[in-house]
Design goal:
about 400 residues; two-stranded antiparallel ribbon; alpha/beta; TIM Barrel; 14 helices; homotetramer
């Protein structure tokens, strides 16, 4: 039985939870084999923002949208921010792109040619300029850099080049701006990836300074990796800056968060709840003293995009709610006494709870329909944009 | 020390080895993140054939080129075959494509909608028509079909649909035409793949009849899979129809054959040599009584394509040569007596041998330069086609 | 909302569900690093049966216990069966052991030495004798056979030897006895395993005859393998004979069923429910026309064993109950219409349901406490056997 | 063609290479399923040392043997060191064991109970005492600590406990003694491992001080992990203290070094050669300013142990020799100019070279037979110890 106090506290935290959706998740995407176009897909950054605002309108907890440069480059970022505010949301993190120019065939910030590194660095600096214009706090860096063949380049030289570029970009940050460095096990490079694991990202962040933190993308690990261990470890060192949520069965599948292994998502959230780092407050010991960002970073290659984003948000909410219901006193007591099955049972009791009524109550308290997916489906939004967004070029990755 | 007899026999077999290169390996390719264009890339099926003929001219063992429909669709396939012959090579297998039409978003031959299945089936039947025109023996089928989310479709119904389509296509074959069914662990679908493993392909082939055999793509397995075991097992059941050679570190990386794990390629070749199934003769017990096809199926996303294909051919030759040098009598004696280290040593002795002199001799016997990569680099072919192939649209996957 | 009809039907099926626990799961077990002894562990086959009966007494759905020979060898198996019946349960499958004799260092049924194969075969035949004595229907065969080094033995010869032994054993079966052939990806052999995947087991079963079927152990697959696909495929071919349930994070961890990925267990159960093969009735098209056996096969290296077994049984029940609540009409409609998110939502709705009240009702209907774990903990059984079972030698794997 | 200078330099480095063999590699070992006893296995630490000395006598590059406490605990370690010297070798690293006492069921240095942590810490301190007695430089710490079930213990608390114990042990070191912290992906714990990856070990070493470095065991990574990347990264940070060499196909298989993927071992050696860190000299920037230790850590479950150790040593030598033959000028030139295939070709040319003649020359220069495996086989040592070592208890892991 969930205690009334715990339930009330859960509602309080869930009310403060903030999930940031990615502009590129509203555009077309696909695999190397095919990008399937979908009806109603946005053609402009503004239309992506409209979709993001729709997700917020039905969920109440997604008031931020991340931009990707150059896909979302506009003349006037202040005007774009204004457009977002008019729709009820804010612009969030700026994501850099150093992988879609022919110059980047062999890398960007790690490229053997200094001219290419310069070009990539300038792009990163431009992103900080954009952050100044939009008021964004987070510069999120994921590098596609790596090699495909043994011997292709010097692993170690590439690390040195990376460190040098990062230092220049870090020095450009002002105020409470953060540099968030993402790691990824493989893809698109397949032999080496220049930031393949949390350790590499962590070591670079240490070298940079307190405003550098690690981004954990839940799809970027080797098979069998215990992700919640990494969460706990980065929290312990104060260097967990952000999540990129999504789910996967095999590679970086970029499925909806919580779709592949909801128990894993719950365990991740449990680590955050233990560290009181879920909702809008900085985790104890954070090197930046700023809250962790909860980004979604996923593609919807075959399913409708706004509906998939809504489902992802509610999946995260469900995992969070279950984690908030864990009877932590009972858990700690069982752990301390070496009661393996008792401790597992406490966790599983919370996980087995059907939290949909609790979340329905949360939404009604926010003036929303208790079932965002159903309400969205009934709203006619998809049909409307499918009719309206005809002509022009649909947004996509531009691969 | 390699015995002179074994060396002579190796040369004999290597002289008969036939490797078939893929037309699409000469075009641009990439990842979902970016396709980098390269200079000198062919713009037409004829130019792809010219590149394939170049690989054969320098290696002497690549006299066949596989086509991919619709990427290589032409008005007059007989004329295309004639063009190939004029360049010194032949057209090989026909590869079907049922993954690049918007109708195939949820699958092709396994799609829930019978109309889509009909469309896909008609494409497969068209491919047999083309085989009739080109004189190709092999219909190679790889299906991108699968699902991304649990529940998305009925796993079992999809198998039934697949079986029905395959039966219709199989019935259309004539003479010694073969249906070769490829399996793949994941990608582009990520939750289920409709032919994910050799067992599924094998079971369908059994149901179809003797002219149906399995294609083993060396990049299409789960991590840790022992591929040579599958080779041995399929040979034992007479159902190994073809290889798609390439190499990989993590997923279906489509690197040059032998690049990632040359010892594994050697072990695969060892199984073939044991079964006397390397060069142009049918493996004992083959359901078709036809030789195994040695296809290359790889991409060259960042490296020059013709040079990469030549290197792949020579990598396969090296693995084959080493396998032919295994002292099989000593190996069998060690195995039978339970001498674990002795048996391993026999295999490793062959593997440790530098077979480049032997292959140089082979090539000189064929009137070729002993080092195909060096000879190609010196030939000026790349520079020539880079100058000539300007304008038009470079060949690619069209994703 | 779950319809009352579906709920009633679920209760009906759950009442008929039968889970068979393994005698060796009550003994000590461990890793190659250490076997930790636990209090109260049985010292005799009879005491293991007492523990199995205890699991049944609290769950009501575990009326069978599997034996492992020689660990459970007794003088008088009829008397052992009588002991079981007196405790309220029955003897189930006979599990053979051909891996713990020094003769089996290089294999048993696949060993290069015919004398070792003879010894192993005789053990298997003895197991059928025991089946005759106990009335067991299932001969469950898992072979530790394989090799550790490339070249160590001929992969193909080993398959031939395996086929020959299996044929002799199959010929010995009488009546409705079944030969159930288990596969395992790796361990204890690490280079090759002689029955590494479902395809290999399936091919051997086909060669043997209709009374041979495949055992799917949920911990015996490569990382990323879609197990429910294999379930669906084996059902389609009528060759799914049994499950060995357990769970795993990385290798064959043998954790409690449902502990590592409860969503996966639910998806497996969903395939069985779709095929109406959950409870005591044969799956349509089964080659034997007999129901699938639901074995547990797990170790409890650090947790108390009877309590862990009870939890495993209830975890399986929960997954089954959720699968029975799937709104199959809505699911099929969504699948047929290509509604990816709708179909996923139907599955997830069932999974999100808290089925503990339903299972409580089931148990009360059987005259049991609604919470078996709590009732067992309160029963004092563990404390009692911990006091009683002192002296003698605790049961274990004897490694 | 290998340049004479490069060949001469390779010989020079190979002459200085030092490989340290593990005492436990001479004893019986196995899997959780079975430990197969072998003839001639040592019964005492002295006999293990005799075997290690035999490996050195035939290879010339294995003059050190690692001890494992308590398996090698003796009354008088100075006398043991004297015994070793009399055989021509030295005692090397001290390996602690905190996993084979019943108290360690839920961990040792991370155990929730402070009394268990105290016991484990005292054992570690005793190991430093032994180091003082033997003159060993390296304290090698691998912890079996971890959890099997979600919730079983607090991931983060366990890190804090670990840090506290390590700090106490580190403070006990004197002179140039090093604390070497090993990481391992999984096993024996399967849900979490308390030091699962290089990042965790690295972060603890940073916190401890310069005399703490990371141990990289080549078998302790997730599938698909690029190990040479980790080597390069740890070298860059000065924290690569030692290797545990062995090889694996799937898990921590502990096969002979180089047996499973010789190309990978070559690539690892290439990173060391690039950093001039192969033979007896400290890598530039090492936090300790001491050379990297090259440990073997493997089991020989089915193969004879001394012969397997000799083969492992020569496998490492072959990989090292090939790495030393890489034309680094050509490699760097190709890398800098973005010549992907050219750079790969340089590496592969070295790898394809048959270095057995070079190593034969090296050994003859040391007054040894050019083929250590053949010379050992001919020596009669195995037959002699098989006759002599009868009675008593064979050494083993004591699991």
């Amino acid at each position: 039985m969930t205690s009334p106090d715990r339930r009330a506290r859960a509602l309080e935290v869930l009310r403060e939870q903030r999930i940031e959706t990615p502009s590129w998740g509203y555009g077309n995407s696909g695999t190397r084999f095919k990008v399937f176009a979908q009806p109603g897909v946005p053609r402009t950054p503004e239309e992506k923002i409209d979709d993001a605002a729709t997700v917020h309108r039905f969920t109440g907890v997604a008031p931020l949208v991340s931009l990707h440069i150059p896909w979302d480059r506009v003349e006037d970022f202040a005007a774009l921010a204004e457009h977002a505010r008019a729709q009820g949301i804010e612009l969030g993190a700026i994501n850099a792109n150093t992988f879609q120019d022919d110059d980047y065939r062999l890398g960007s910030v790690c490229h053997p040619d200094p001219a290419v590194r310069r070009k990539a660095t300038d792009h990163l600096l431009e992103c900080v300029d954009i952050m100044d214009a939009t008021g964004s706090r987070d510069l999120k860096l994921w590098f596609a850099d790596g090699t495909n063949y043994p011997g292709q380049d010097s692993i170690r030289d590439r690390q040195d080049r990376l460190a040098e570029v990062l230092a220049e970009v870090y020095a450009r940050l002002t105020g409470d701006q953060r540099l968030l460095l993402e790691y990824k096990f493989f893809e698109p490079a397949v032999y080496t990836t220049d930031v393949p694991d949390w350790g590499t990202s962590f070591a670079h962040c240490l070298a940079l300074g307190p405003q550098a933190q690690v981004v954990l993308d839940t799809g970027h690990h080797a098979p069998g990796t215990n992700i919640e261990f990494i969460v706990a470890t980065l929290l312990r060192h104060g260097r967990l800056g952000a999540f990129d949520f999504n789910s996967r069965f095999y590679a970086d599948d970029d499925l909806m968060a919580g779709a592949a292994d909801p128990f894993q998502l719950f365990r991740i959230m449990h680590e955050l709840v233990q560290a009181e780092a879920v909702a809008g407050v900085p985790a104890t010991g954070s090197s930046t003293g700023q809250p962790i960002s909860f980004f979604l970073d996923q593609c919807h290659n075959i399913e409708p995009k706004v509906a998939a984003m809504i489902r992802s948000v509610t999946n995260i909410q469900e995992a969070t709610a279950k984690a908030l219901l864990v009877d932590t006193d009972a858990l700690t007591a069982a752990q301390r006494s070496g009661d393996v099955l008792g401790a597992y049972a406490v966790l599983k009791d919370a996980y087995d709870t059907d939290v949909r009524p609790l979340l329905g109550e949360l939404r009604e308290g926010l003036g929303l329909h208790p079932d965002p997916s159903a309400a969205y489906a009934a709203s006619g939004y998809f049909e409307q944009v499918s009719r309206d967004r005809v002509g022009g070029e649909q947004a996509g990755w531009g691969a």
